[in-house]
């Protein structure tokens, strides 16, 4: 700890506020809030504190600390959110691309208000709905609204189309209309206030229906339309009545597509759940209005790998509701956010500042049982699906993947962009059931038909270096056999292709050989650090292969997944390369490495399961296939068999007491 930091720690007040952690370059790397700045900031530097890996990494980079004192915790939360949004510190949980979320604006301050898309909201007397994560969905919503409610989409100044809604017209005011309506009027998408075909009051009634619809108050919209249709029919205005009837039917068709959730709540509710990946989390929000699901939005948070669920939830709620124009009376969350009471008080202040037409109370609920738990589970399952879809979508975006490949090329100094990338990973449990995995990506996309799994045959115990070398020799030996004096061997055989279903388990039985027409990779990635890379390079030199090889490991060592960045090891650079956290190249490298890990781990788990369920029972004298099947079907696991009594085992069909005794004796020796 340097003298600068020590002097700051000595001057910290016992007051609420925020603190800014800075590195040696003066960059803000973390922003936090505290009830007591003295206690919170000093806790980072106490040796007895059990810090997370992220905090340990952060503390090692702190060169200076600044703090700002505020009046209370809510002010601290607001100030913290503003600083995070402005500076996007490395060690804070951040919404990805949070500045680009669109809103739907109902411009109430305009004469004959328009409804259109904007990129930010302000407390300016207009109504805003959002934020939305998909601009295309916003445009589709606006198009639907314009079909249901005939509001204008032009940009004309409508102040001269009708007298002011309140008070007398200003001196010299004169009504000025257009000569004729546009096409929108003739296709029933505008009521043409520009030529006085509708009054200000009639047009404002349409805008009121738009707002009610966006608020989810569909029953009120239908009730209003029904009343107007009945009135038009009574006045024998059958053409208008028919048009209103068609609009009612269109609204009803839209509502039929929405799922109705039976809950006791009649107030607004937001339900939030999380699904986490390697270093990102999908936060999904379902919006319920009077028990009806009216919409959902997802948001991707970065830098969440070693953050607790409570920290992630709290960070998301701060960033989401800071930019949300609406706060519901009840927020149902999967996990309780850190500083729950502070967040709840802040939401109450925000709700109080918006015209809600009701109470300003806000309650954050973490349900443990009942219907609300089912709601949370539904949202969580959807969040997992969204996270998977976003990964697939990213990989299929050719522009992003090409940019990512070019970033990788530049970072590791390749002559050309790597078209074919192969990644290798080793999985084992304390050296047992060791397996290797090879995944192939071409043009940034997985080529699953060329994935391979390897049983490690020559290495005993937990030796990643030797295991990587065995896998690489078996992968490349036959590919260079014709061009060298290296003889092929039965040990070179690897598992056969697995096809499109990557979870199908094909054991490495030596039946399939490496295809000779496989392309050689432009880049080989080894899951590991400097040691694994050097082991791989030794094999490449042995086989006279000139293929670029890099190692990808978690920052500060590959032994833990709880770090905040990746280190890229290259043969020539003495220090690892660390790409920016928002780098597309880093994102692709992580996806490839995670796919290799997942692919190998599933095979390892299958082998371990087979060893537990098959090897143990297969080696017991007198236990044949039928008895083994009966035991597994009834007890489910070797542990359950071990816990069963002799009487329980003997009672199974086909089992004798002698066979039961042998089972107990053999399993007992293993334990």
TrEMBL record:
Coiled coil, from the record: 222-261
PROSITE patterns: GIY_YIG (PS50164), UVR (PS50151), UVRC (PS50165)
Residue ranges occupied by any UVR domain in the UniProt entry: 219-254
Keyword DNA-binding belongs to the record: no
Family annotation (InterPro entries): GIY-YIG_endonuc, GIY-YIG_endonuc_sf, GIY-YIG_UvrC_Cho, Hlx-hairpin-Hlx_DNA-bd_motif, RuvA_2-like, UVR_dom, UVR_dom_sf, UvrABC_protein_C
Cellular localisation: Cytoplasm
Keyword DNA repair among UniProt keywords: yes
Superkingdom assignment: Bacteria
CDD domains the UniProt entry points to: GIY-YIG_UvrC_Cho
Keywords for the protein's UniProt record, in alphabetical order: Coiled coil, Cytoplasm, DNA damage, DNA excision, DNA repair, Excision nuclease, SOS response
Record domain GIY-YIG: where: 14-93
Residues of the UvrC family homology region profile domain: 271-540
Pfam families: GIY-YIG (PF01541), HHH_5 (PF14520), UVR (PF02151), UvrC_RNaseH (PF22920), UvrC_RNaseH_dom (PF08459)
Family, similarity comment: Belongs to the UvrC family.
Record's subunit section: Interacts with UvrB in an incision complex.
Function: The UvrABC repair system catalyzes the recognition and processing of DNA lesions. UvrC both incises the 5' and 3' sides of the lesion. The N-terminal half is responsible for the 3' incision and the C-terminal half is responsible for the 5' incision.
NCBIfam families the record matches: PRK00558.1-5, uvrC
Protein name, per record: UvrABC system protein C
Organism name: Dictyobacter formicarum
């Amino acid at each position: 700890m340097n003298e600068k930091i020590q002097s700051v720690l000595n001057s910290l007040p016992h007051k609420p506020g925020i603190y800014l952690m800075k590195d040696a370059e003066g960059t803000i790397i973390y922003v936090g809030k505290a009830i007591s700045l003295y206690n919170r900031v000093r806790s980072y530097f106490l040796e007895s504190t059990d810090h997370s890996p992220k905090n340990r990494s952060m503390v090692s980079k702190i060169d200076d600390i600044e703090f700002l004192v505020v009046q209370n915790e809510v002010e601290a939360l607001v100030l913290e959110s503003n600083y995070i949004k402005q500076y996007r510190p490395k060690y804070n949980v951040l919404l990805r691309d949070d500045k680009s979320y669109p809103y739907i604006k109902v411009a109430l301050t305009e004469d004959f208000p328009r409804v259109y898309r904007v990129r930010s909201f302000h407390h300016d007397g207009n109504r805003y709905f959002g934020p939305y994560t998909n601009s295309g969905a916003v445009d589709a919503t606006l198009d639907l609204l314009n079909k249901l409610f005939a509001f204008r989409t032009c940009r004309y100044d409508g102040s001269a189309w009708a007298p002011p809604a309140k008070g007398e017209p200003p001196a010299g005011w004169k009504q000025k209309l257009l000569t004729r309506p546009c096409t929108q009027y003739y296709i029933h998408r505008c009521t043409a206030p520009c030529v006085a075909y509708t009054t200000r009051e009639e047009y404002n009634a349409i805008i009121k229906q738009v707002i009610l619809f966006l608020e989810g108050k569909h029953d009120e919209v239908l009730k209003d339309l029904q009343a107007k249709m009945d009135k038009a029919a009574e006045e024998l205005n059958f053409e208008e009545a028919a048009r209103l009837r068609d609009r009612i039917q269109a609204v009803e068709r839209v509502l039929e597509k929405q799922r109705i959730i039976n809950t006791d709540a009649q107030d607004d509710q937001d339900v939030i759940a999380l699904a986490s990946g390697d270093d990102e989390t999908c936060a999904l929000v379902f919006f319920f209005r009077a028990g009806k699901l009216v919409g959902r939005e997802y948001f991707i948070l970065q830098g969440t790998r070693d953050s607790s669920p409570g920290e992630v939830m709290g960070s998301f709620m701060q960033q989401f509701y800071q930019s949300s124009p609406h706060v519901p009376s009840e927020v149902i969350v999967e996990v309780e956010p850190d500083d729950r009471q502070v967040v709840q008080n802040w939401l109450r202040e925000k709700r109080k500042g918006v015209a809600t037409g009701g109470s300003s109370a806000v309650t954050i609920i973490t349900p443990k049982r009942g219907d609300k738990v089912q709601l949370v589970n539904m949202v969580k399952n959807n969040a997992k699906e969204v996270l998977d879809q976003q990964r697939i979508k990213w990989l299929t975006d050719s522009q992003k993947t090409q940019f990512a490949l070019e970033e990788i090329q530049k970072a590791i100094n390749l002559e050309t962009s790597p078209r074919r990338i192969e990644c290798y990973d080793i999985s084992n449990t304390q050296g047992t059931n060791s397996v290797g995995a090879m995944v192939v990506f071409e043009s940034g996309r997985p080529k699953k038909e060329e994935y391979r799994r390897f049983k490690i045959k020559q290495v005993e115990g937990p030796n990643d270096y030797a295991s990587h070398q065995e896998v690489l020799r078996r992968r490349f030996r036959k590919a260079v056999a014709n061009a060298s004096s290296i003889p092929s061997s039965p040990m070179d055989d690897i598992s056969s292709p697995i096809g499109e279903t990557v979870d199908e388990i094909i054991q490495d039985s030596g039946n399939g050989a490496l295809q000779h027409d496989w392309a050689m990779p432009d880049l080989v990635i080894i899951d590991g650090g400097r040691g694994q890379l050097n082991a791989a390079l030794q094999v490449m030199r042995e086989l006279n292969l000139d293929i670029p090889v890099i190692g990808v490991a978690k920052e500060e060592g590959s032994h833990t997944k709880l770090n905040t960045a990746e280190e890229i090891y290259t043969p020539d650079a003495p220090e690892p390369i660390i790409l920016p956290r928002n780098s597309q190249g880093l994102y692709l490298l992580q996806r490839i490495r995670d796919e290799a890990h997942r692919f190998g781990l599933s095979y390892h788990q299958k082998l371990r399961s087979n060893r537990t369920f098959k090897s143990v029972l297969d080696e017991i004298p007198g236990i044949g296939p039928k008895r083994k099947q009966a035991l597994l079907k009834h007890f489910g696991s070797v542990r359950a068999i071990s816990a069963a009594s002799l009487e329980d085992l003997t009672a199974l069909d086909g089992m004798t007491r002698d066979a039961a005794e042998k089972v107990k004796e053999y399993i007992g020796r293993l334990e």
